[in-house]
Design a protein that fits this description.
mainly alpha; about 0% strand; elongated
Length: about 70
């Protein structure tokens, strides 16, 4: 049962979905932030969005894993 909780915490399907969501936001970052603020800020924004998406994913997966 403990393995099931650990596996659910790092579920690959949810992680792949989170990475796909991040990849879909990259064109928006490139179209909106890059021309306005420059490449350094656009790279920083892409990194921040990546971390936020992963934290949200881990939070949802962790919560679901603890409820089971």
């Amino acid at each position: 049962m403990k393995w099931l909780k650990i596996h659910t915490l790092f579920a690959s399907d949810a992680m792949m979905l989170a990475i796909l969501v991040w990849l879909c936001t990259l064109p928006l970052v490139g179209l909106i932030i890059l021309p306005t603020f420059g490449a350094n800020i656009a790279l920083a924004a892409a990194g921040v969005i990546f971390v936020l998406v992963l934290l949200i994913c881990w939070g949802i997966c962790g919560w679901e894993g603890l409820r089971k």
